[in-house]
Amino acid sequence: MQELEFRMTQQPINTKKMYWIFQLIGWSLFFVFYAGVAAYFNDYQWQIIVGYLNTVIVGFILTHIYRSYIKKYEWEKVGIFKLSGRVILASILLGIIWSAIVLPINNTFFYVESDQEFTFAIAVIIVLNLSIVAAGWSILYFLFKFFINLKSSEIEKWRLEAAVKDAELIALKSQINPHFLFNCLNNIRSLVIENPEKSRDMIGHLSDLLRYSIQFNNREKVSIEQELDVVQNYLNLESIQFEDRLKYSLEIKPETLDLKVPPMAIQLLVENAIKHGISNLPDGGEINIKSYLSDDNLIVEVINSGQINNDKKGTGIGLKNASDRLRLLFGKISNLEINNLNENQVKASFKIPLI
Q1: 3-state helix, strand, coil in the chain (%, to 5)
Q2: Residue 292: how many CB atoms within 10 A of its CB?
Q3: Interval 258-307: pLDDT, tens
Q4: Distance between CA 323 and CA 316 in Å, rounded?
């Protein structure tokens, strides 16, 4: 997800700007190389250099017009064989038009005396050479377009992936909140008649939890410190119901307090520990919440009294959603794990890469 977020910050490719950059650089290099070679074998006569400059300028203009024609008739969408035929014919036509423009100008204004007489055969060779140059330009242009289309497709794919991720996260959050509220409201309902004072305390804790949910659950990530506030509210809420049967402790390394986790991720582990562990023990039990750094990873552990019953399938939709949210936000490396730590304890943990 982090890689996806980085990719989404990239700006769309400016194909028009890139086209002009490559057009200018390509023709400049063509002029420097061929004019330099030709001038070297002709004692660096200025007519040769200017004649090549004229040839390059005309080629620059003709290929730009050629590009407009390609775009107008959408050559990029035709098959490779049809495109090849069009490029060959267009290159020959460009070579003929190009020669018809530059030869009279060069022979009139930039003529260089030579022992070799200008003949029809030489004219054909010039047309052929310029046609090859036009064909080379065409190949480079369509390779450029292929690359740009490929990158554009990748960007669009990233955008679609991001939209799917957002939709999945919203759906998961909408499942977590009702599940959490259902448990809290059941607890309050059981105490409204028996102990109104305690029920008022529970409503106060629930109010704090709802405030947190409204403020932070629409975010992808919150700090460990913020998440622990809601966890302690939840534990205080449950402590009223379990009384002395529920004990908890926190072992939070100070350097982890500002690090980010998905909202309700730790709270759901604690809720699962109570629902599937503590509540099943006649004498209750203890929950220990830890966070620390290891090998450039944030490690979060929730250790509770109890044992995993391997005969039961799963441990609740809330826990599954917590795992899915971690996976969506941080990738497979953050997958949540739950296993029996020893004969009396269960450990739920996840790790999040710092980089």
Answers
A1: 70, 10, 20
A2: 14
A3: 998 877 778 878 887 887 788 888 888 899 999 999 888 899 999 999 88
A4: 11
Q: Which fold has domain 192-353?
A: Heat Shock Protein 90 (3.30.565)
User: What residues of the chain score a pLDDT lower than 70?
Assistant: 1-13, 42-44, 110-118, 156, 158-180, 183, 213-219, 240-241, 309-335, 355
Q: How far is CA 253 from CA 8, 122, 221, 260, 289, in A?
A: 33, 84, 19, 14, 11
* Cα distance between residue 243 and residue 284, in whole Å: 9
Task: Burial-class residue 164 by CB neighbours within 10 Å (0-12, 13-18, 19+).
Answer: exposed
Q: Which residue ranges does the chain devote to CATH 3.30.565.10?
A: 192-353
pLDDT at 63: 94
Contact 1, 332 (CB under 8 A): no
Residue identified by tokens 């989404």 is 8
Burial of 41 (0-12, 13-18, 19+ CB in 10 A): exposed
